[in-house]
């Protein structure tokens, strides 16, 4: 399982600091984009501003592979800006496509069609597409879209209480992985030293880590390496 640093920042200085540290030890970096409608009380820098920061930070040096995690209610308008900024993958949330209807009224086939359409538009502009799921969301409609989706992200924290890891999400990861050997499966939110082994055991291919790496007393590289050390060797 890969450990990938995740940047969640609301100010340019904080973003620059986290990015400059992350590129020292990881060739892949995830960047969170959040709006307050999707995550109440939280908002990150807009895509256009992140693009400017990226151009400045990577001038004269190889850029890492960039993954955008879109915790937003309207992800499609962001896609061209992400491609222009140099991102290689955009992970949009299933809930952004289905929130207009109560869950009981949602047709899985219609949901799958919505995912396919946005995935096709994502790949048409040069990005690979991923789909995120908040805790409790049924992933079954995605079974009809795996030919277009490169990654399924399971968010392991509630958008209303983002600091608390929800171990029951790993049951969903295990169930999905048993019946769907591809695409890649990732876990994001609340990843820490006390749950990294369980995340790896669930079958996840990627663990995105922010707080545990960047907000600890130890340097981010040391925290990153400690997490890698805790993952059992296959």
Question: What is the overall silhouette?
Answer: globular
- Largest sheet: number of strands, sense, barrel closure: 8 strands, parallel, barrel
- What number is the mean pLDDT? 93
Question: Structural class, from secondary structure content?
Answer: alpha/beta
Number of strands: 8
Give the C-level CATH assignment: Alpha Beta
**CATH homologous superfamily assignment:** Aldolase class I
What is the helical fraction, as a range of percent? Answer: 25-40%
**Secondary-structure element sequence?**
EHEHEHEHHEEHEHEHH
Output the number of helix runs.
9
* Beta-strand fraction estimate: 15-25%
Q: What is the second-level CATH architecture?
A: Alpha-Beta Barrel
Low-confidence residue ranges: none
N-end to C-end Cα span? 9 Å
CATH-defined topology:
TIM Barrel
Radius of gyration: 17 Å
What does this structure look like?
The structure is a single chain. This protein has an eight-stranded parallel β-barrel, surrounded by four helices. It is built from nine helices and eight strands. β3 (65-71), α3 (79-85) and β4 (89-93) form a beta-alpha-beta unit. It has a single domain, classed as Alpha-Beta Barrel (TIM Barrel). The chain is globular and about 45 Å long. α1 crosses α2 and α2 (47-57) runs parallel beside α3. The chain is an alpha/beta fold. The protein starts with a strand and ends with a helix.
Search tags:
TIM Barrel, 8 strands, alpha/beta, eight-stranded parallel β-barrel
Quick structural summary:
The protein is α/β, with parallel strands linked by helices and 234 residues long. It has a single domain (2-230), classed as TIM Barrel (Alpha-Beta Barrel), CATH 3.20.20.
């Amino acid at each position: 399982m890969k450990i990938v640093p995740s940047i969640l920042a609301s100010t340019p200085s904080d973003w620059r600091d986290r990015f400059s540290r992350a590129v020292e030890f990881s060739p892949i970096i995830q960047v969170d984009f959040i709006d307050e409608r999707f995550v109440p009380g939280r908002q990150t820098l807009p895509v256009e501003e992140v693009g400017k920061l990226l151009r400045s930070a990577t001038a004269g040096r190889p850029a890492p592979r960039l993954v955008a995690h879109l915790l937003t209610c309207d992800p499609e308008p962001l896609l061209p800006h992400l491609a222009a900024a140099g991102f290689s993958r955009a992970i949009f949330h299933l809930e952004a496509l289905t929130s207009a209807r109560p869950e009981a009224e949602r047709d899985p086939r219609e949901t799958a069609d919505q995912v396919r359409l946005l995935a096709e538009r994502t790949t048409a502009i040069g990005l690979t597409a991923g789909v995120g799921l908040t805790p409790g969301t049924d992933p079954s409609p995605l079974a009809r879209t795996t030919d277009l989706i490169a990654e399924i992200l399971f968010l392991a924290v509630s958008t209303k209480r983002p600091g608390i890891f929800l171990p029951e999400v790993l049951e969903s990861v295990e169930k999905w992985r048993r019946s769907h050997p591809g695409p890649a499966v990732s876990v994001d939110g609340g990843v820490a030293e006390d749950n990294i082994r369980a995340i790896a055991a669930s079958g996840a291919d990627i663990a995105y880590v922010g707080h545990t790496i960047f907000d600890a007393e130890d340097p981010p590289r040391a925290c990153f390496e400690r997490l890698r050390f805790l993952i059992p060797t296959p």
